[in-house]
Amino acid sequence: MGKRKIIVRESAVQSIAEVAWFIESKGMLATAEKFSDAAYDAIEKLANTRVTHAVCKEAERNSLGLKCISFKKKYTIVFFESVMEIIIHEFIPSKMIHW
Questions:
Q1: Angle at 27 between CA 89 and CA 23, to 5 degrees
Q2: Cα-Cα-Cα-Cα dihedral sign, residues 55, 56, 57, 61
Q3: Which of 42, 30, 31 is nearest to 73 (CA)?
Q4: Is 91 left (phi over 0), alpha (psi -120 to 50) or beta?
Q5: CA distance 74 to 70
Q6: Average pLDDT value over all residues in the chain
Q7: What whole-number distance in Å separates Cα of residue 66 and Cα of residue 76?
Q8: DSSP structural state of residue 56
Q9: What is the pTM of this model?
Q10: Which positions ≥6 away from 74 have C-beta within 8 Å?
Q11: Burial class of residue 93 in the structure, from the number of CB atoms within 10 Å of its CB (0-12 exposed, 13-18 middle, 19+ buried)
């Protein structure tokens, strides 16, 4: 199975950390760690070269050629996909995407 290089932009890293921090602030330390691990595992699965993803349905991100994938039905991972690499641009709550 071929793998592409994955680049995660700082804004996406901060978003994942903010969600984990919020979960942790509620006293659920193990859950926060599991969330972070699951988010990065989902990002790592994008590296498979045999899978291509659909472009975002939102007009603004679609015009930029960005692709979207849902994570746990509440979050969206927004990324750019090329033959050699995946660049993760955003990790945002799905309700922040306006159709």
A1: 15
A2: negative
A3: 42
A4: beta
A5: 7
A6: 91
A7: 12
A8: P
A9: 0.88
A10: 93, 94
A11: exposed
The pLDDT value recorded for residue 94 is 86
Q: Which residue has the tokens 């039905």?
A: 73
Whether residue 20 contacts residue 32, with contact meaning beta carbons closer than 8 Å, is answered with: yes
5-46: pLDDT as tens digits:
999 999 999 999 999 999 999 999 999 999 999 999 999 999
Residue entry with tokens 């498979």: 48
Q: Helices marked H in the chain — which ranges?
A: 10-25, 29-45, 59-63
Tokens of 98: 């306006």
Which two three-digit tokens encode residue 47? 């590296």
Integer Rg of the chain from CA: 14
Tell me the C-alpha to C-alpha distance, in Å, between residue 3 and each of 46, 77, 84: 9, 18, 8
